[in-house]
Design a protein that fits this description.
Blueprint: E1 15-16, E2 21-22, H1 32-41, H2 46-67, H3 77-91
Antiparallel strand pairs: 1-2
Helix pairs in contact: 2-3
Length: 94
């Protein structure tokens, strides 16, 4: 599955940077629809999905830390881990 571009008018649920909200629905990314799209697009490719999410997780952490460097408003790495990985571990068939 190729990564869709995060441009206005894109029909996919992709992250808007640097705030990491879905450009389509405004929820935290990955939003419920993005999760479904990713699970469908990466069916049977658990390692590839994990690598994509790991890359996005690092980018998200860097972006959010840059937005709020000293305000203590950045989500914890644990919260971001749950946001990016827990659902994928449960939902992707091997």
């Amino acid at each position: 599955m190729s990564w869709p571009s995060a441009v206005p008018g894109n029909p996919f649920h992709v992250p808007g940077r640097p705030h990491w909200r879905c450009i389509r629905c405004g929820n935290e990314w990955p939003c419920p629809t993005a999760k479904t799209e990713l699970l469908t697009g990466y069916r049977g490719m658990k390692l590839s999905l994990s690598m994509l999410l790991a890359s996005q997780w690092v980018d998200c952490l860097n972006d959010l830390c840059a937005l709020n460097p000293s305000k203590g408003e950045t989500p914890s790495t644990r919260d971001l881990y749950e946001r990016f990985f827990n659902w994928a571990e449960l939902g992707v068939p091997d």
